[in-house]
Amino acid sequence: MKSPLLVLIYTVDCPLRCDFCWCSGNGYKPVKIRKEDAIRYIKEAAGLGVVKRVSFTGGEPFLHHAELVEVLDACKGLMPARIVTSCYWAETKGRAREMLKPLVERGLDELSCSTDPTHQAFVPAAFVKNAVEVGLELGLVCEVVSVSWNATSEVEDFMNGFRHPRLRFSQHLAVPMGRGRQRKVTWRDYNIPRPSQMGGCNLGGRDINIYPDGEVYPCCAGELNFMGKLSFGNTKKDSLKTILERIQADAYVQLVFNRGFDAIYGLARWKFPRLLPLLPKDDNLASVCQLCVRIHRDGDLMKALTPLLDYGKKLVEVEQRLEGHKKGGNNN
Fold it and tell me: For 48-78, how does the pLDDT look when each residue is reduced to its tens digit (9 = 90+)?
């Protein structure tokens, strides 16, 4: 099992207005995590012994560059850091070096750069290339990430053939939320399996995602987290240890993230047929995130699903134990 990741949604503010994003302008308050709280979160997470990395995302964390330097300086040596950014600040390679070098000196080792047709309406792809090239020169692992309404878009094209052993590419399909909430797009438009037939969700399930108001969620699904009522606690009253234990013990989260919604729908068809008519239809959905919201926000449905989820969680635990024994045997 992979180590949990500490994700700080450092700010929901952003100078861009991408048509698939919920940041900013939706009235969410507060708009950022306090610097002192970020330092506390990192130190507390490091003390758990299982969290191995912190990721700063948003919004646009580089709007608070000076604070990021202070936070990493205060937590230097506790865990490496990753930052997700649009690279709006990398007009030149010189400027990119000026912004990245003090962060690298304090523990930044990964940079995730967002670029796609929507981002490029605000930030030229050349800015991303500046940030990536300088980041690689400074020893960072760099990632170029695309989010698009176009299933045929190729993220590699935005770098004009530039490749490097420490450069990776990641491509995602946009989910109708935020400014794109009214967009009529389904799994058929993307030519992908319907959400109820998809395997394990790859957005988290073991992670600690902290929003500016202190609410903690198991994944980084933006506004869909609070639409789906997926909070597992608040840092103002709960320890990160307690919240992580809740996430890892939750039958719904572990079944969805480890085996996907096809496990829920499959178990309903196979062992709990009376529950199948209660599960939402996914004909007009484009993403497992939307299906997750429809299921988890419905308290009566979640209560009815309890025996199915408990049964599914036990199956996952048995599989994980068998996998652990198999790996142990292979090491002997």
Answer: 999 999 999 999 999 999 999 999 999 999 9
pLDDT exceeds cutoff 90 at 212? yes
| Cβ neighbours of residue 81 closer than 8 Å, sequence gap 6 or more | 53, 54, 55, 56, 72, 103, 106, 107, 108, 109, 110
> What number is the average pLDDT over the span 2-22?
92
pLDDT of residue 29: 82
**CA-based nearest residue to 181, from 229, 219, 222:** 222
Sheet strands side by side (includes 81-85): 167-173, 141-148, 108-114, 81-85, 54-57, 6-9, 204-210, 216-219
Q: pTM higher than 0.85 for the full model?
A: yes
> How many Å apart are CA 108 and CA 106, to the nearest integer?
6
Whole-angstrom distance between the N-terminal and C-terminal Cα of the chain? 20
What pLDDT score was predicted for residue 25? 58
Alpha carbon 204 to its chain centroid, in Å, reads 6
Q: How confident is the model at residue 273 (pLDDT cuts 50, 70, 90)?
A: very high
Distance, CA of 327 to CA of 313 (rounded, Å): 21
CB atoms within 10 A of CB 66: 9
Strand residues in the chain grouped as ranges (E): 6-9, 54-57, 81-85, 108-114, 141-148, 167-173, 204-210, 216-219
Q: By three-state DSSP, how is residue 221 classified?
A: coil
Say whether 85 sits in a helix, a strand or coil: strand
Round to whole Å and give the CA distance between 154 and 146: 8
pLDDT of residue 115: 95
- Residue partners of 171: CB distance under 8 A and separation at least 6: 145, 146, 148, 153, 154, 155
pLDDT of residue 329: 64
- For 231, the 3-state DSSP assignment is coil
Contact (Cβ atoms closer than 8 angstroms) between residue 304 and residue 275:
yes
